[in-house]
Amino acid sequence: MKFLFLSTHAFLPTTRKTSVHFVSEALAERGHDVSTISVGYSRLTALKKPELHAQLSADQKNRFVESRPRYRSACYLPPLHPFSSGNAHINRLTALFFPLYGNLLPGFFREAIRDADVVAIESGTAIAFFDAVRRFNPRARTLYFNRDRLDTVGASTYLQALEQRVSPQFDRVIVPSPKMAEHLPPKSRVVYIPQGIDKAGFDACDTSPFAAGTKNAVSVGNMLFDREAVVAMASSSPNVTFHFFGAGIPEDLPANAVVYGEKPFLDIIPFIKFANFGIAPYRLSERELYLAQSSLKLQQYSYCLLPIMVPNLLEGSRANLVCYGQHGEPDWTGKVARAASMPHEENWRDGILTWAEVAGRIEEEIAAL
Where are the alpha helices (DSSP H) in the chain? Predict the structure, then answer.
């Protein structure tokens, strides 16, 4: 089959990997032809992320580049693009722009849609293209690759309303946690498929980046990042080095915290595998409890048998959690010490899928249509 993935993530060797990268790559490895188009970029990107814009413009600007057998990537780069903002006035203006952006497509984009057997649209800006997909290729099977709640990630009210309209029109809505579907219209054809793990990458890694005898914690990603909690835990335990990966992580942290920015996934694997414990410093509300199942880093930490420090709203969701009070933890030193000294239990990785297994479940859902 021919798959087309529409996503706001860049498909470059230098950027971090998310589930959409792993799933699309696994489908190519299983013999499918996979195309990806990155959306939500334009000349505006150069103002905020000049290096990323330069990389996307160099090879993928409005054209496909094959990076491996049966796998090619492009970036839709118009002069301007609509975006979500915390400013209600700006969101009202961009709501007028989203329909134009999602329907006036260049030739390479239209051709890719027409050629696809399956179009997978990731949650976020990419859903603006749903109507165009239906118009240019009504025979294509459509998947809503729903990774996060749009209200959680700060998507505009236009995109949130659009999601409510189009969600029931997808052939399948694939979620990494059943809680992800609670806010969707009841007619949505929801399927729960857990996140996967690059087990081969972790298994092949055999060299620790840490000095012998040191204590190390690792945190990957910036979603709902709770700086206050991070500062408190690092300040309480100067004998532990805290390693942070992700774009936009604040650098004004205690001296025993190291901020690396966004790095390729293969560079991060050793830091996860050989850490003493992981951190998921989410600033949570009840709305984000789906992260107990959907969080990719929780899966990665658990596969590497790491205890995980998390806010206490996630208490009881996994056996390897060390929960702290999100609003005023009284014993940071004790919690860090517990995480750093817990035995690493083999059963913490039970039930974790490979990305090939995730891709296989997606194939099964398509075959049932």
Answer: 19-29, 43-48, 50-59, 88-103, 107-115, 130-136, 157-166, 199-204, 227-236, 265-273, 291-294, 296-303, 332-341, 355-367
Half-sphere exposure for 57 (CA within 13 Å, toward CB): 14
Output the CA angle 247-249-250, nearest 5 degrees.
Answer: 140
**214 and 181 assigned to the same domain:** no
Per the structure block, which two tokens stand in for 34?
């996979």
Q: Which domain holds residue 107?
A: 2-194+354-367
Strand ranges of the sheet holding 240-245, from the earlier edge strand across to the other edge: 257-261, 240-245, 215-220, 277-279, 308-311, 321-324
- List Cα–Cα distances, 36 to 28, 82, 333, in angstroms: 11, 20, 45
Residue 10 burial (10 A CB sphere; 0-12, 13-18, 19+): buried
My answer on whether 345 and 361 are in the same domain is no
> Does 57 share its domain with 144?
yes
Residues 175 and 254 in one domain: no
Query: Is 362 buried (19+), middle (13-18) or exposed (0-12) by CB count in 10 A?
Result: buried
| 165-204 confidence digits (pLDDT tens) | 999 999 999 999 888 888 899 999 999 999 999 999 999 9
What's the pLDDT tens digit per position in 278-299?
A: 999 999 888 888 887 888 999 9
d(CA 166, CA 302): 35
Neighbouring C-beta atoms of residue 207, cutoff 10 Å? 7
Same domain, 10 and 149: yes
Task: Indicate the pTM of the whole model.
Answer: 0.89
Residues 162 and 225 in one domain: no
- 12: domain CATH number is 3.40.50.11010
Q: Are residues 327 and 231 in the same domain?
A: yes
Q: How many domains does the chain have?
A: 2
Residues 182 and 214 in one domain: no
